[in-house]
Design a protein that fits this description.
- The structure is a single chain.
- Helix content is 63%, strand content 0%.
- It contains seven helices and no strands.
- It starts with 15 loop residues before the first helix and ends in an 11-residue tail after the last helix.
C-alpha cells in the first residue's frame, strides 16, 4: 500500500496473525456488557473498515459478512442485520481504498464518515422494516464516534508495520 502523503516511512507487510487478532479483539470489545448504549461505537465495523482499506485482498466482504452474523447472534438481532451492514461497509471500503490512502488523517475522516453512516442507516432501516421502533437520535452519534476513532485506530493498527526489520547503518529504511 502507498503511504499517505504526509508519511515518508515505508510500512512492513502486515502480519496475518496480528490482523486476525485485531478483528477478534474488536469483536470482544463489542461483546463487553455495557448495556444498550445507542451512541457506542461499533469496534468491529471500525476495524473491518480499516483493514478493508489497508489490506483489501486479505480482508474482504466475506469476513464482514461472517463477523456480522456473529454480532447478530450475540446481540439477538434479526439474523443478517449486522451481516448486511458489515458487508456494505466492506464493499464501500474496498471501493474507495486507493483514494483514502492518498489523504492525511483529516481527509480520511471525511472519506470514511459516510461509510460508517451508511452501515448504521442500513441496520436502522432493517430494524424499522421488521417493525422495531425508532431507537432515538442518539444512534446517529455512533458513526460520529467511529469516525473520530479512525486516526487512533490507524495509529494502533499500523504501529507494528512501522518498525524497521533490521535497522543498521547500511540500510536506512
Amino acid at each position: 500500500m502507498l503511504p499517505s502523503h504526509h508519511s515518508n516511512q515505508l510500512l512492513l507487510p502486515v502480519n496475518p496473525l496480528f490482523l486476525w487478532i485485531t478483528l477478534v479483539v474488536a469483536l470482544l470489545l463489542n461483546f463487553l456488557p455495557l448495556g444498550r448504549q445507542l451512541a457506542m461505537p461499533d469496534f468491529v465495523a471500525l476495524v473491518v473498515a480499516f483493514w478493508n482499506i489497508h489490506q483489501p485482498r486479505r480482508i474482504g466482504v466475506g469476513v464482514g459478512f461472517s463477523l456480522g452474523l456473529v454480532m447478530d447472534v450475540h446481540q439477538g438481532a434479526l439474523l443478517g442485520q449486522h451481516a448486511l451492514a458489515y458487508t456494505l461497509l466492506s464493499y464501500l471500503a474496498i471501493m474507495i481504498h486507493r483514494r483514502v490512502l492518498w489523504f492525511g488523517w483529516w481527509g480520511q475522516l471525511i472519506q470514511v464518515a459516510p461509510l460508517f453512516l451508511a452501515a448504521h442507516l442500513v441496520s436502522l432501516g432493517i430494524r424499522i422494516i421488521v417493525g422495531d421502533g425508532f431507537p432515538g437520535w442518539a444512534l446517529l452519534l455512533a458513526p460520529v464516534f467511529e469516525t473520530l476513532l479512525w486516526p487512533l485506530t490507524g495509529w494502533l493498527l499500523l504501529a507494528p508495520q512501522r518498525r524497521a526489520p533490521d535497522p543498521d547503518e547500511d540500510r536506512p529504511l
